[in-house]
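User
New here, explain this?
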Amino acid sequence: MLEVKNLNVSYGVTPILRDVSLTVKQGEVIALLGSNGAGKTTLVNALMGMLKAQSGEIIFEGEHIENMQPHEIVKRGMAQVPEGRRIFPYVSVLDNLRLGAYSDQAWRKRNQSIEWVFSMFPLLKERQNMPARTLSGGEQQMLVIGRGLMSRPKLLMVDEPSLGLAPKLLSEVYEILGKLSEDKITTLLSEQNARQALTISSRGYVMENGSVVLADSSHNLLNSELIKEAYLGR
């Protein structure tokens, strides 16, 4: 579904991503691991067209998208759940969700999609008419995931979903993310919480200093001494 080949991205004259390559197959949950500053968010932003590649290729369903604008990429079936939630705070929960139905096709299905999101996150249904700023941090994370799903993506990229979540809400959010493949949604999960991400993913990539330094099955990564020492507190 997604193939990234030797991708290089810079901020001004400062290189951030260096020859990043990865693949995502349809139906997979892929973990993208690394500490803060490793380049994960930059990679996700580049895949969505918010940062331009200096060189390299981004191929989505056989089509080169490295020179496309973000709205064009969304229409082709990719969506991003950004780090830090980035809700519209003074708009209702329901209208925040509607804003995710960007394309004409998604807008036509918006009511059906809203009910689908509410079935996954019943708390959002209870609070649908409240301003989004009144939600707790965990509820806001549910909201931005739901907003991303409103575009009916084929590939959903979720950036740091565990950030600031209490353990109970973290479990609920990850339970939903782990089931998205049942709705034919492929997931790329950018996460510092390696144990949580590897629990629901099939494969993982580890980034350091803007490069992919390790790629393996999630099972092997969970049992890797390097990963245990660097990311699992062992």
Observations:
- The chain is about 35% helix and 25% strand.
- Strands lie at 2-11, 14-24, 29-33, 55-60, 63-64, 78-81, 155-159, 186-191, 203-208, 211-217.
- The longest strand covers residues 14-24.
